[in-house]
What we know:
61% helix
Amino acid sequence: MTEADTRAVLVELFRKELGDPRLEPQPDDLEYNIPGFDSGKKVLLILAVEERFAIRLRSREIDALRRFDDWVTLIHRHRSAANR
């Protein structure tokens, strides 16, 4: 799965969990500037990401998430490591 594929799946997860089918998060968007994003939604997104990508995120990794592209990079890194 490429980073572009990861990004596309993540956009769909954000749309679903944040309840906005037209949401188009940009790579540099800060989490809390994304409409509908809050700490409760972050928990739901983390669970959805872990389930969809079959990965486990560590708390220090979650704490480092700030921008939409941070999510993409973290997921892609986990997926790449799993495919080695």
